Amino acid sequence: MRIADAHADVLYQLRNASSTYAEASFLQAGYQDSLKAGVSLQVFALFAHPQLSPGEQLRQVLEDIGRYQRTMINTGYVQPIFYREDLFSSVQPVYSGILSLEGAACLYDSPEILQALFSLGVRGVGLTWNGANSLADGCREERNAGLTRAGKQIVSMMEELQMWIDIAHLADAGVFDVFSITNGIVMASHANLRKIHEHPRNLTDDTVREIVRRDGWLGLTFEASFVAKSEAGLEDFMRHVDHALSLGCERHLGFGSDFDGTSHALQGLATVSDYPKLAERLDKEYGRELAEKILYGNFLDFLSRQLPSRKTEFASIH
Ligand SMILES: [Zn+2]
């Protein structure tokens, strides 16, 4: 079965590596293993540590984009997706990639820098990582404030550009603000459910229902500390899948593994090579049709709703 994954930190891991993406054997979501496991669409997160200055974060993000272009796209290993037309124009079999930004301090509050990153292929943004920045508070910030004025401006520019709004790391007050100031699609690329496991990185039932109501998308994630208290395994993870489906996520559910970004691997779901086991479990539990939707189809549908069209892009230029 084909698999789409909405969040992996491969680019972060490759930053100081001596081997290239195609050769690297230390990755949880390595290239060869991804192909073998059936992954055919991967979102590559751009992440720079928030303790760095915004300038240093911007430098790292631009370097990662350059490395992605030079060693993954230009070499033909990854076929880039920029517009919704690209989703259906690929020659099979294919391994597609999309860039997203995780933590947006590097924007310097500037819609123009956001526009520049869009032009380089970035298609989704999470305003924060776990702490606060000039745009909003992250989910680990005790203050739990919402979006700043600059954060709201960035979100409205994202809507204009049709970049996806990723609430995975946002504080509850920020999630509320996003829902208040936008009418459109909202997604969470890698988060789990608070009803199943109480954790600030997990979403409330109300948030999930609102994502569904807006025709958005939720990517459940394999970081063990977001799944259960201790020694979490595949069965614990399945409780999140089950609960998401009970909240109406049949057409809005998928996965954002957080491979190469997790510190606590989930037993049985520790690397991309474990995806076929999850696929088998989903097939057994929910049947082939729903399993295929959760593994791939729902994310593809989300992208066809969310991504800008090449036609409108050209129309706006001329
Ligand atoms: Zn993350």
UniProtKB/TrEMBL annotation:
<dbReference type="GO" id="GO:0016805">
    <property type="term" value="F:dipeptidase activity"/>
</dbReference>
<dbReference type="Pfam" id="PF01244">
    <property type="entry name" value="Peptidase_M19"/>
</dbReference>
<keyword id="KW-0224">Dipeptidase</keyword>
<dbReference type="InterPro" id="IPR008257">
    <property type="entry name" value="Pept_M19"/>
</dbReference>
<dbReference type="InterPro" id="IPR032466">
    <property type="entry name" value="Metal_Hydrolase"/>
</dbReference>
<protein>
    <submittedName>
        <fullName>Membrane dipeptidase</fullName>
        <ecNumber>3.4.13.19</ecNumber>
    </submittedName>
</protein>
<keyword id="KW-0378">Hydrolase</keyword>
<keyword id="KW-0645">Protease</keyword>
